Amino acid sequence: MEQRECFRHELKYSIGYPQYLELKSRLGAVAQPDPYGGAEGSYLIRSIYFDNFTDKALREKADGAPVREKFRIRYYNDDLSYILLEKKEKDRYLCRKYDAEITESECRQLLEGRVGWMRGHPAALVQELYAKMRFQALRPKVAVSYVREPYLYGPGNVRITFDTRIRSSLFCRAFLERREADVSAMDRPGDIILEVKYDAFLPGVIRSLLQTGAARQQAFSKYAACRRFG
Fold first, then answer.
1. Measured between alpha carbons, how far is 157 from 197 in angstroms, rounded to an integer?
2. Which residues 6+ apart lie within 8 Å of 164 measured at CB?
3. How wide is the angle at C-alpha 147 spanned by C-alphas 142 and 148, nearest 5°?
4. Rounded Cα gap, residues 148 and 51, in angstroms
5. Per-residue pLDDT tens digits for 167-219
6. By residue range, what is the domain housing residue 59?
7. How far apart, in whole angstroms, are the C-alpha atoms of residue 13 and residue 90?
8. Secondary element (H or E) of residue 75
9. Secondary structure tally for the chain: helices H, strands E
């Protein structure tokens, strides 16, 4: 199991398109586009989240539980050659992620309920999910997709992202299909989620940028937003 990050701070804001244009303009003077954005400066993320029959993860989020975890599978730009199983741990405003790569075949088996292969998998994270699927009844619950526009600022290891076109589908078996039927998960389709992640400190230049950008900090969860339909 690979721990990609130590605990990092995570801030989320809901902004409209005018605020996005203002913040993007200000970011251009201090931050660099993330190379993962490619020539277009953005990429598509598709994820499927796990929960149990009592909706443990959803209830913990709604109740504001300070310490919680979520499992998800995700891939990027409809490229099925690189699929990640991830566990995200949250401790108030701090978060940490673990991941393990799985194959398209393994992912399809999991979505079909065939999980025997997970028991002896070389990745500890896959084995952990297998145990929690057995003893906590975790199951694929909802598919989430969105487009992410990322930026980097070196001091503080800051990553700033704009997430748009957040969409949801309850048809989990269609997760790997490009023509998956989905719907918008936002109250207003034009809303954008700004996320700011950093290590020990948030540099003053980024803090000032956020304060002047009319951004409203909030505890937003894509998983919770996408679960409104079931």
1. 8
2. 146, 147, 149, 192, 193
3. 115
4. 24
5. 998 888 788 987 667 888 887 778 899 999 999 899 999 998 888 655 666 66
6. 2-229
7. 17
8. strand 67-76
9. 6, 12
Distance separating alpha carbons of residues 226 and 142, to the nearest angstrom:
7
Q: Which residues contact 196 (CB under 8 A, 6 or more apart)?
A: 9, 10, 11, 12, 13, 158, 159, 160, 202, 206, 210
Mean pLDDT score of the chain, rounded to an integer? 90
| Higher per-residue confidence, 59 vs 216 | 59
Look up residue 158 and give its two tokens: 């800051």
Length of the chain: 230
* Separation of alpha carbons 2 and 114, rounded Å: 24
The CATH number given to whatever domain includes residue 140 is 3.20.100.30
Q: How many domains does the chain contain in total?
A: 1
Please write the tens of the pLDDT for every residue from 94-143.
899 999 999 999 999 999 999 999 999 999 999 999 999 999 999 999 99
* Token pair belonging to 225: 């937003």
Between helix 17-27 and helix 204-212 the angle, nearest 10°, is 150
- DSSP string of 6-58? S-EEEEEEEE-HHHHHHHHHHHTTT-EE-GGGTTTT-EEEEEEEEE-TT-HHH
Four-residue CA torsion sign, 34, 37, 38, 40: negative
Token pair 């084995």 in the structure block, residue: 127
